[in-house]
UniProtKB/TrEMBL annotation:
This is ATP synthase F0. It comes from Cercophora scortea. Signal peptide: none annotated. Keywords: Membrane, Transmembrane, Transmembrane helix. The chain crosses the membrane at residues 21-44, 73-94, 101-124, 130-150, 157-176, 188-209, 239-264.
Amino acid sequence: MDRLNNINPFAKRDEHSASSVITYKVLTVLSWLLSFITTIYYTYNSPTDGHYIGKTIWGQNYLHPSGFTQNQLITSLFWLFLFILQIGYVAHLFSTKVETVNAACAVGSHFILNNLLHFAFVMLFVRSHFIWAEIILIINFFNLTSLYFRHNTYPRFIHLPAVSGPLAWTFVAIYWNGAIAVPHQHSLIARIFANIFVWSILVYGLFFICAQDYTMGFNLSVLSASLGVAQFFDKTIALQWIFAFTIMSVLFLSTVVIAVPAWAGKSRQAPSDAERAPLLADN
């Protein structure tokens, strides 16, 4: 079993050898550049190879309107913010503090796989291979879910860019790409199903917020806002934009309730504990 753990790149480790740290540095940088450059390139350029319809990322988004169509500006800003934070995560691999490097390396294998799967998704999505793109998203969802529940105690500078940010996007992207993959995605039946499934974003977000993870609530509230804006301009008489903005509001307010005490460095029970302290002392 120990030998298996030694060769398993996804095994949980508290310490890493010098050679493995170098490997993580090289593969993390290369895989991140692959993911970043591919995303930027296909944001502005359409593929010219293959026999299927090729469009930019946002060209596909608006060519196939559905109940999960995203707003280009908001989602692009979300990804820009995430990429910037990921640069910070990568930088921690080069830290002089051993504990910081070990923490960054601990999520490295999953993060590298996420980058490779994101690259594969973009390549398939812009070439209209939506079924295969959906399979890639589902695989990455399991990869990131495993990462989340095995490594959810690391600092926010690792957790947000390497774990919760990609996980939130992948969860929403499964619906986004899945709605495009379904025939007649703009039909009444498809929109009714979209009106139902959109609430899973709220349930999913509240689950993590109840677990005191405000980063997931923030990520999903931004992506819900993107969904709401796109749906408002797509079909203002539909219910989807109302649902999306409702979900955004609930997630954002719930996130603030959790985040403010965390930022202040004290829990919500602190005031009540302070009130009981004199009584305990008197006894």
